[in-house]
Design goal:
The chain is mainly alpha-helical. 62% of the residues lie in helices and 8% in strands. The strands form two sheets. It has a three-stranded antiparallel β-sheet with strand order 3-5-4.
Amino acid sequence: MIEPARAEGVEYEPDAVERIVEYTQGYPYFIQEYGRAAWNIAEGATITRADVEAAGAVVEAELDASFFRARVQRASPEELRYLRAMAHLGADALKASDVAEVLDKTSEQVAPIRARLISKGLLYTPRHGYAKLTVPQFDRFMLRYMDLDTVPPA
């Protein structure tokens, strides 16, 4: 992001880069999207923290409409509820039993759902008994996308 911009005569303020890295957590596609949005908003040869802050809503809306929407379209209603329960608990790796508790189920009851989400690439297991969403900000999207007890229509 920094070098391609520099090659075009544009610089990023260090705290602008810091904010982009914080939001994207280093996820390459998100860096690309954020860089593009900030570039389009910036009025001069320097992309500022203010430009990046202004671009945040644009990036979030674009990711919601395309990237995240494509992910939820691959999930069944019970898988969506599982993802939403995870989002309710936060972005960290979560114990299967904690997610099951939010859903008022046992770990054994939700194990097949969790396995399907792993198979679909929506979750991964960083260590035994834990699962984590595969992309940053997906938890925040799920909180915006649906309530725990209401699955949006396909």
